[in-house]
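Protein in question passed on here:
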Amino acid sequence: MRFAALPDGIITSMGETAMSTDSMNTQQGRQPINRGTVVGCARIIHGVQSPDGDLVPCERLGPGLVEGCVSDGRMRVWWTMAGFSSLLDPGDIQTLGLDARLVVVHKCGKDGQSKLLRHKIVSGVGFRHNWTVELRPGNVIRVQRWDGHAWTFTKNPIFMRITTPAWGAPPDDDDAEALTAAELSLFG
Protein backbone atom coordinates (compact mmCIF):
# COMPACT_ATOMS: atom_id res chain seq x y z
CA MET A 1 0.00 0.00 0.00
CA ARG A 2 1.35 3.46 -0.86
CA PHE A 3 0.78 6.65 1.09
CA ALA A 4 0.65 10.22 -0.13
CA ALA A 5 0.95 13.43 1.87
CA LEU A 6 -1.62 16.12 1.23
CA PRO A 7 -1.70 19.74 2.45
CA ASP A 8 -2.50 20.51 6.11
CA GLY A 9 -0.78 17.39 7.47
CA ILE A 10 -3.35 14.94 6.08
CA ILE A 11 -1.90 11.56 5.17
CA THR A 12 -3.96 9.33 2.91
CA SER A 13 -3.58 5.73 1.92
CA MET A 14 -3.94 5.04 -1.76
CA GLY A 15 -5.73 1.95 -2.93
CA GLU A 16 -8.51 2.11 -0.33
CA THR A 17 -12.04 2.02 -1.68
CA ALA A 18 -13.69 4.18 0.98
CA MET A 19 -14.34 7.84 0.33
CA SER A 20 -14.54 10.59 2.96
CA THR A 21 -16.68 13.67 2.66
CA ASP A 22 -14.90 15.37 5.58
CA SER A 23 -11.83 16.49 3.67
CA MET A 24 -11.67 18.74 0.64
CA ASN A 25 -8.27 17.18 -0.14
CA THR A 26 -9.62 13.65 -0.43
CA GLN A 27 -9.52 12.27 -3.92
CA GLN A 28 -11.26 9.19 -5.28
CA GLY A 29 -9.76 6.00 -3.79
CA ARG A 30 -7.98 7.55 -0.76
CA GLN A 31 -8.89 7.25 2.89
CA PRO A 32 -7.69 10.18 5.07
CA ILE A 33 -5.85 9.78 8.34
CA ASN A 34 -6.57 13.01 10.23
CA ARG A 35 -6.13 14.10 13.83
CA GLY A 36 -8.65 12.09 15.88
CA THR A 37 -8.83 9.14 13.48
CA VAL A 38 -9.16 5.80 15.29
CA VAL A 39 -6.39 3.46 14.15
CA GLY A 40 -4.78 0.11 14.87
CA CYS A 41 -1.48 -1.48 13.96
CA ALA A 42 -1.06 -2.45 10.34
CA ARG A 43 -0.62 -6.15 9.72
CA ILE A 44 3.02 -5.64 8.78
CA ILE A 45 4.14 -4.77 12.33
CA HIS A 46 4.04 -6.88 15.48
CA GLY A 47 4.44 -4.18 18.09
CA VAL A 48 5.36 -0.60 18.92
CA GLN A 49 8.28 0.66 20.95
CA SER A 50 7.22 2.28 24.23
CA PRO A 51 8.92 5.39 25.64
CA ASP A 52 11.02 3.19 27.97
CA GLY A 53 12.30 1.14 25.02
CA ASP A 54 10.21 -2.02 25.39
CA LEU A 55 8.40 -3.52 22.39
CA VAL A 56 4.67 -3.64 23.19
CA PRO A 57 2.74 -6.21 21.10
CA CYS A 58 -0.10 -4.78 19.00
CA GLU A 59 -2.75 -6.74 20.90
CA ARG A 60 -1.70 -4.96 24.14
CA LEU A 61 -1.86 -1.45 22.62
CA GLY A 62 -5.61 -1.23 22.14
CA PRO A 63 -7.04 1.17 19.59
CA GLY A 64 -5.04 4.30 18.86
CA LEU A 65 -5.99 7.90 18.23
CA VAL A 66 -3.99 10.00 15.81
CA GLU A 67 -2.81 13.08 17.68
CA GLY A 68 -1.11 14.70 14.71
CA CYS A 69 1.49 14.55 12.00
CA VAL A 70 5.08 15.67 12.60
CA SER A 71 7.26 17.46 10.04
CA ASP A 72 8.88 14.28 8.70
CA GLY A 73 5.47 12.74 7.85
CA ARG A 74 5.25 10.32 10.77
CA MET A 75 2.04 10.13 12.77
CA ARG A 76 1.86 10.61 16.55
CA VAL A 77 -0.60 8.02 17.92
CA TRP A 78 -1.95 7.70 21.48
CA TRP A 79 -2.49 4.01 22.37
CA THR A 80 -5.41 3.71 24.79
CA MET A 81 -4.64 0.44 26.60
CA ALA A 82 -0.87 0.95 26.71
CA GLY A 83 -1.21 4.58 27.84
CA PHE A 84 1.53 6.18 25.74
CA SER A 85 2.09 8.00 22.45
CA SER A 86 4.45 6.87 19.72
CA LEU A 87 5.61 8.11 16.34
CA LEU A 88 4.86 5.76 13.45
CA ASP A 89 5.15 5.80 9.70
CA PRO A 90 1.72 6.05 8.04
CA GLY A 91 2.22 2.56 6.61
CA ASP A 92 2.45 1.12 10.13
CA ILE A 93 -1.12 2.06 11.06
CA GLN A 94 -4.53 1.39 9.54
CA THR A 95 -7.82 3.16 10.12
CA LEU A 96 -10.57 1.26 11.88
CA GLY A 97 -13.24 2.88 9.71
CA LEU A 98 -14.19 6.27 8.38
CA ASP A 99 -16.87 6.79 11.02
CA ALA A 100 -15.17 4.87 13.86
CA ARG A 101 -15.08 6.80 17.12
CA LEU A 102 -13.60 5.85 20.46
CA VAL A 103 -15.22 6.02 23.90
CA VAL A 104 -12.68 5.41 26.68
CA VAL A 105 -14.06 4.79 30.18
CA HIS A 106 -12.02 5.41 33.35
CA LYS A 107 -13.04 4.59 36.91
CA CYS A 108 -11.95 7.27 39.38
CA GLY A 109 -11.49 6.43 43.05
CA LYS A 110 -12.06 8.61 46.08
CA ASP A 111 -8.29 9.04 46.30
CA GLY A 112 -8.21 10.73 42.87
CA GLN A 113 -6.60 7.79 41.09
CA SER A 114 -7.96 6.92 37.65
CA LYS A 115 -7.91 3.45 36.11
CA LEU A 116 -8.79 2.42 32.55
CA LEU A 117 -11.99 0.40 32.84
CA ARG A 118 -12.79 -0.29 29.17
CA HIS A 119 -12.97 1.20 25.73
CA LYS A 120 -15.52 0.90 22.99
CA ILE A 121 -15.19 1.60 19.29
CA VAL A 122 -18.50 2.83 17.91
CA SER A 123 -19.48 3.43 14.32
CA GLY A 124 -22.72 4.06 12.53
CA VAL A 125 -24.23 5.96 15.47
CA GLY A 126 -23.51 9.48 14.23
CA PHE A 127 -20.68 10.37 16.59
CA ARG A 128 -18.45 13.16 15.31
CA HIS A 129 -15.99 13.07 18.22
CA ASN A 130 -13.95 10.71 20.40
CA TRP A 131 -14.76 10.73 24.13
CA THR A 132 -13.20 10.07 27.53
CA VAL A 133 -15.69 9.25 30.27
CA GLU A 134 -14.77 9.33 33.96
CA LEU A 135 -16.99 7.41 36.37
CA ARG A 136 -16.41 9.44 39.53
CA PRO A 137 -17.50 8.84 43.13
CA GLY A 138 -20.95 10.02 44.13
CA ASN A 139 -22.60 8.88 40.87
CA VAL A 140 -20.93 11.70 38.93
CA ILE A 141 -20.04 11.10 35.30
CA ARG A 142 -17.63 13.50 33.60
CA VAL A 143 -17.59 13.32 29.81
CA GLN A 144 -14.77 15.01 27.91
CA ARG A 145 -14.41 15.40 24.18
CA TRP A 146 -10.92 14.99 22.73
CA ASP A 147 -10.80 18.74 21.97
CA GLY A 148 -11.23 19.57 25.67
CA HIS A 149 -14.94 20.44 25.95
CA ALA A 150 -16.56 18.69 28.91
CA TRP A 151 -19.98 17.87 30.36
CA THR A 152 -20.93 16.61 33.83
CA PHE A 153 -23.89 14.32 34.46
CA THR A 154 -25.22 12.35 37.39
CA LYS A 155 -26.22 8.71 37.35
CA ASN A 156 -29.35 7.29 38.91
CA PRO A 157 -27.86 4.28 40.74
CA ILE A 158 -31.16 2.42 40.95
CA PHE A 159 -32.00 2.49 37.24
CA MET A 160 -28.37 2.77 36.00
CA ARG A 161 -29.37 5.68 33.76
CA ILE A 162 -28.16 9.23 33.36
CA THR A 163 -30.29 11.83 35.09
CA THR A 164 -31.02 14.22 32.24
CA PRO A 165 -30.02 17.75 33.17
CA ALA A 166 -32.37 20.68 32.91
CA TRP A 167 -30.73 22.36 29.90
CA GLY A 168 -30.57 26.16 30.18
CA ALA A 169 -30.92 26.38 26.41
CA PRO A 170 -32.20 23.73 24.03
CA PRO A 171 -29.62 20.95 23.78
CA ASP A 172 -27.59 20.91 20.59
CA ASP A 173 -25.91 18.03 18.74
CA ASP A 174 -22.80 18.25 20.95
CA ASP A 175 -24.93 17.97 24.11
CA ALA A 176 -26.78 14.96 22.69
CA GLU A 177 -23.51 13.28 21.70
CA ALA A 178 -22.04 13.86 25.18
CA LEU A 179 -25.17 12.41 26.79
CA THR A 180 -24.99 9.37 24.50
CA ALA A 181 -21.31 8.83 25.36
CA ALA A 182 -22.22 8.99 29.06
CA GLU A 183 -25.01 6.43 28.55
CA LEU A 184 -22.65 4.12 26.62
CA SER A 185 -20.15 4.23 29.48
CA LEU A 186 -22.63 2.63 31.86
CA PHE A 187 -22.84 -0.60 29.91
CA GLY A 188 -19.83 -2.80 29.23
Remarks:
- The chain has a mean pLDDT of 82.
